[in-house]
Specification:
The protein is of the alpha/beta class. It is about 30% helix and about 25% strand. Helix 7 (about 285) links the parallel strand 12 and strand 13 (about 290-300).
């Protein structure tokens, strides 16, 4: 098996560090791993395969002899350094949203559209975390009958906002328990003991940028250009793992048992559905692992072609780091 030279751009952030962890767990065939970050992080040591790797400064010359660059940096950095990565001949697998809707950039979930990855011009995009979790959960249903519409509500963990999210949640809980006032910095309002129905920037249609990603990205990944998605995104006071409530409308009427059977054998999924014994997906079950748990599967009461379900997945892993590395694995033998 050929070993590859891999660089992680944004290696000291939450997703970057998770990428390092997942590369080791999955025994990715690495010849050399280069950790890149801003000047202020230079010199930081991060352990990989029992070896301390030293973080280097990200510069336009960082990509010589690199085969794959895993991007865990904001849009601005991705846009700035993508030309240098492509010029160096590496494949840039980018976790930001900078290139997701570019026509010549594949948007890939390996369980769903792996072959799209090969039609790249040096850049491949990792989808939004909630989009990945949702589409992995419903891909088996789409194989039974094409999905025409989705009504989605996401319940997104504080870690989806980066390392500062969980920190703010814990600080606010501690402050309130001590009778102190709290300050919202990462989120628009107090997140402790609260829900915030606002993730992303509001658009003219009343939806947010985060909410529109489910439709825009879903159409591209699933090759369903007419897919309609109505989505509401909510930040919830938990540490990790996103949850999504989904109601789908399919072209043909499906039987619940057929749906459950299809999900039970689908790649990347766990059928976790037995309400009689209180068995259903929850964030605590799905954190720190890579599978999407699917349960509460039932007929929609408003549409005879509708199916409702609830799914959970770790947004730092399958929703970001692991999905990117699964894309990289497509190129190990190609």
């Amino acid at each position: 098996m050929k070993k590859l030279n891999v660089a992680i751009m944004g290696a000291t952030g939450a997703v970057g560090r998770e990428m390092i962890k997942v590369l080791e767990e999955r025994s990715f065939p690495i010849n050399k791993l280069v950790l890149l970050a801003s000047k202020r992080s230079v010199g930081t040591k991060i352990k990989f395969n029992n070896e301390d790797l030293v973080v280097e400064e990200l510069t336009p010359d960082s990509f010589k002899e690199i085969d794959i660059v895993l991007g865990a940096s904001p849009n601005k950095i991705a846009l700035e350094f993508a030309p240098y990565i492509v010029k160096a001949g590496a494949i840039f697998i980018d976790n930001s949203s900078a290139f997701r809707m570019n026509e010549d950039v594949p948007l890939v979930v390996p369980e769903i559209n792996p072959t799209d990855a090969y039609n790249n011009k040096g850049i491949i995009s990792n989808p939004n975390c909630s989009t990945i979790i949702s589409l992995v959960a419903i891909n088996a249903i789409n194989k039974l009958s094409k999905i025409k519409a989705i009504n989605a509500c996401t319940y997104q963990a504080t870690s989806g906002a980066g390392a500062s999210g969980p920190k703010e949640l814990v600080e606010q809980i501690n402050a309130l328990n001590e009778g102190k006032s709290v300050e919202a910095k990462t989120f628009t309002h107090q997140i402790a003991y609260n829900l915030i129905p606002h993730i992303g920037s509001f658009l003219d249609n009343g939806y947010t940028t985060e909410e529109m990603k489910m439709q825009n990205e879903g159409r591209k990944i699933m090759h369903l250009p007419e897919l309609l998605v109505n989505c509401t995104c909510v930040r919830v006071p938990i540490i990790r793992s996103h949850s999504i409530s989904l109601t789908l409308v399919t072209e043909n009427k499906l039987q619940i048992e057929d749906v459950k059977k299809a999900i039970s054998v689908e790649k990347g999924c766990v059928l976790y559905d037995d309400p009689s014994s209180n068995k259903y997906p929850m964030p605590l079950l799905t954190s720190d692992q890579d599978l999407v748990y699917v349960g509460r599967i039932r007929k929609d009461l408003l549409n005879e072609n509708g199916i409702s379900l609830f799914c959970c997945g770790d947004q730092v892993r399958k929703g970001a780091a692991t999905n990117a590395i699964q894309i990289a694995e497509l190129f190990v033998n190609n």
